[in-house]
Amino acid sequence: MVSFRIPLILIQILILLPISLASTSVTTSVCKSTPYPDVCLDSLKLSVSININGIILQSLKVAISEALKLSTLMSNADGFNIIEMHKGTIQDCNELHQITLASLDKSLTRLAATSSSKTSKLADVNAFLAAAVTNKDTCLEGLESASGPSKPLVVGTIIAAYKHVSNCLSLLSDSPPSGSRDVSDKGMAWLSKKDGYDEGDDDDDNMLTVAADGSGNFTTITEAINFAPNNSVDRVIIYIKQGLYEENVEIPSYKPNIVLLGDGRDATIISGNRSVVDGWTTFRSATVAVSGEGFLARDIGFYNFAGPEKHQAVALRINADLAAVYRCTISGYQDTLYVHSFRQFYRECDIYGTIDYIFGNAAVVFQGCNIISRMPMPGQFTVISAQSRDSPYEQTGISFQNCSIVAAEDLQNFNYGHKLSWTAMEAILSDRIHRVLH
Ligand SMILES: *[C@@H]1O[C@H](CO)[C@@H](O)[C@H](O)[C@H]1NC(C)=O
Ligand SMILES: *[C@@H]1O[C@H](CO)[C@@H](O)[C@H](O)[C@H]1NC(C)=O
Ligand SMILES: *[C@@H]1O[C@H](CO)[C@@H](O)[C@H](O)[C@H]1NC(C)=O
Ligand SMILES: *[C@@H]1O[C@H](CO)[C@@H](O)[C@H](O)[C@H]1NC(C)=O
Fold it and tell me: Where is the signal peptide, in residue numbers (predicted)?
């Protein structure tokens, strides 16, 4: 893997610099390494900091204040005078920006509590800032097809505000890498047994039950999500009895720690049919869309039935940190599984699609999964993964560990297998974790 790190020597020199040296020369050399040096210099004008942590903190504070100005613009309906071509464009931008603000605040808290740059908290901050940059990209993608008098102003303001975030991310990446990757055959370190990753506390008294046949607390999943407490620090377990649930489910960022338990991937089915061709943004097309941190799902089938001719049509989208999905089926055609951002883990899942069907910019591991290619439309190639990282400072990537790539029956009969994506294949064949970078 190509490394774009700024030489560590530079940081060491900075730390050893005598205090008597004007801090301007320090910030100048630090800023030179960022994607937007002018913006960096400007944000550090008043900084007296001479260590890299202080410089990152200062630059983060400016990023937050710029991001807050942008929220004011976005929440002002007149200022946001934009005609959307795809349903959800503005809602996507607003929601993603709220997540960015929360990520920046959390980054500031982590960094302020860190005296040395060597702690594993930096890995969290890198994940938060990479997600923020991804949020900007997704918002701008949606705005591409939009029109209206405010569009140039809004797009310009978004780009300007997020330059500060990109700079923070690059400054942070100068710091030493933080520990080893916490992936083992037992799963991610942040999953514990009581989290339902293994057979767990299904008989929790506070469990909410959803049953299509009326035998539970609710008949739709959306009602249960609405009922679930906001900002819960405890897991909120929602048991979804077997049945077909035709609904678009959204788990917003203020509903963290939601656990969805089904009766089996072929028994509890959540289905939708939104697509880009039918006028939605790719982001908003998801049948189940998760922004709430700490999301867990087990024994559920997530489907988007729009069909290959409807192009991008997401079955499951996760832009939530520390999310895990176990023994689930995620089934669609183009763009089935949107691993949008943050850190995610999938174990023993079946993922079906035709093209780009595992895509996004999360740091994600697939373990023991079946990746099943369906027959694409005439003229389309079979492409399994599309990683969309756009800056070398992000620690994101799609990794496959002990997974199988197979062709669905329709594709087998067509003898189409030789067009499977070889980059992804390579990662499968190795028993070590690879990042698939495009
Ligand atoms: C859900 O249903 C169970 C069983 O009927 C009941 O004990 C529980 O109080 C209900 N929970 C809510 C929130 O209504
Ligand atoms: C949760 O927060 C949302 C958005 O701020 C609000 O609309 C909703 O009423 C809140 N729900 C509860 C149960 O407090
Ligand atoms: C999408 O699904 C809904 C709900 O199941 C259904 O009413 C609608 O007709 C479907 N639309 C298309 C285009 O298939
Ligand atoms: C790899 O997958 C196979 C079958 O899918 C399973 O039997 C085996 O235990 C897995 N190995 C690891 C290390 O997870």
Answer: 1-22
For a substitution probing ligand 1, which of 210, 217, 227 has the most ligand atoms within 8 Å of its CB? Answer: 217
β-pairing, 363-367 vs 397-401, is parallel
- Give the residue, out of 273, 305, 309, with the most ligand 3 atoms within 8 A of its beta carbon, to mutate for a pocket test: 273
Q: Please give the average per-residue pLDDT across 332-353, as a whole number.
A: 96
335 is catalytic: no
Candidates 244, 289, 259, 268; CA nearest to 198 is: 259
Eight-state DSSP code of residue 87: B
pLDDT of residue 4: 39
Please state whether 283 falls in left (phi above 0), alpha (psi between -120 and 50) or beta.
alpha
pLDDT of residue 414: 52
Residues in the chain: 438
Task: Name which residue sits closest to atom 4 of ligand 4, judged by CA.
Answer: 368
Arithmetic mean of pLDDT, 166-179? 72
Q: Which tokens go with 160?
A: 């300007």
Q: What is the dihedral of CA 58, 59, 61, 66, to 10 degrees?
A: 150
> Residue 155 contacts by C-beta under 8 Å, 6 or more apart in sequence?
140, 143
Give the count of alpha carbons within 13 A of 438, CB side only: 16
pLDDT tens, position by position, 1-59:
344 343 433 333 333 333 333 456 667 777 888 889 888 888 877 665 557 778 888 88
Residue type, 232: S
The maximal CA–CA distance of the chain, rounded, in angstroms, is 75
Which residue lies with its CA nearest to atom 3 of ligand 1? Answer: 217
- Rounded Cα distance between 188 and 172, Å, is 24
Taking the C-alpha atoms of residue 241 and residue 264, their distance in angstroms, rounded to an integer, is: 9
Residue 206 has what DSSP assignment? T
Predicted confidence at residue 183, as pLDDT, reads: 46
Amino acid at 247: E
Distance between CA atoms of residues 345 and 365, nearest Å? 5
pLDDT at 131: 95
Residue 35: which residues within 8 A CB-CB, separation 6 or more?
163, 166, 167, 170, 391
* Coil, helix or strand at residue 159: helix
Residue 58's pLDDT is what?
87
Lowest mean pLDDT among 68-77, 403-412, 415-424: 415-424
Distance (Å) from CA 247 to ligand 3 centroid: 10
In the prediction, which pLDDT does 427 show?
43
Residue 406 host element (H or E)? strand 404-407
